[in-house]
Write a structure and sequence with these properties.
- It is a single chain.
- By secondary structure, the chain is mainly beta.
- It has one helix and 19 strands.
- Strands 1-2-5-8-11-14-17 form a seven-stranded parallel beta sheet, with helices on one face.
- Helix 1 (about 25-30) links the parallel strand 1 and strand 2.
Length: about 190
């Protein structure tokens, strides 16, 4: 039988959680924090494939760290971060690398967000590199997306892909998209 999951650290809602200081992994932190809280990551490489289902969470590098110092590595096993059906989320100050290169979505993106409702997505100072797709937003209806100061590079397919997404507000500022295998920016409407 597989080993039991690590125990949840004790946690009081309203204070967020720091990895690895208060939780040994990001996944444990995701299962521990309350909606609306922040998970702060200390410098290091985290070999994880994350599934995020809680509303209004923020995953970010610790203040003072650079995205190149806070790495979430998917180990070529699937999406690095997979977010589905939450009202809002944010990812800041991290590198998302080594999602599976080949295969269908979901399963091969640095960040894959499927929202089937309105929602708010904030991506700031994120390096999405060496994935099948860098960042993918799918099925967002009347939502808000902000991508700022991020790098989407060296991905097998697209740097940023909007699939069946209808943005009420879309902000794409001061980003770098380079050396992706297919398109830098793509959407299902080919706009």
């Amino acid at each position: 039988p597989p080993p039991p999951p690590p125990p949840k650290p004790s946690h009081t809602c309203g204070y967020g959680i720091r990895v690895p200081q208060r939780a040994p992994t990001i996944e444990v932190a995701l299962n521990t924090v309350c909606p609306g809280e922040t998970i702060e990551l200390e410098a290091g490489t985290y070999y994880e494939n994350l599934v995020k289902r809680k509303n209004s969470l923020v995953i970010k590098g610790l203040p003072g760290t650079k995205p190149s110092e806070v790495i979430i590595d998917g180990g070529w096993r699937g999406d690095v971060i997979n977010v589905k059906n939450v009202s809002s989320f944010a990812v800041e100050g991290v590198t998302l690398r080594n999602a599976k290169w080949e295969g269908n979505l979901p399963g091969s993106a640095g960040l894959f967000a499927e929202m089937e409702l309105s929602g708010k997505i904030k991506i700031k100072n994120v390096f999405a590199k060496q994935n099948g797709y860098g960042i993918v937003v799918r099925n967002l209806k009347d939502g808000t997306v902000s991508v700022e100061g991020s790098i989407m590079a060296e991905n097998a397919h697209d740097g940023f892909f909007a699939d069946k997404a209808e943005f009420s507000s879309f902000s794409f500022l001061n980003n770098t998209i380079a050396n992706n295998g297919r398109y830098g920016y793509a959407d299902d409407k080919r706009e």
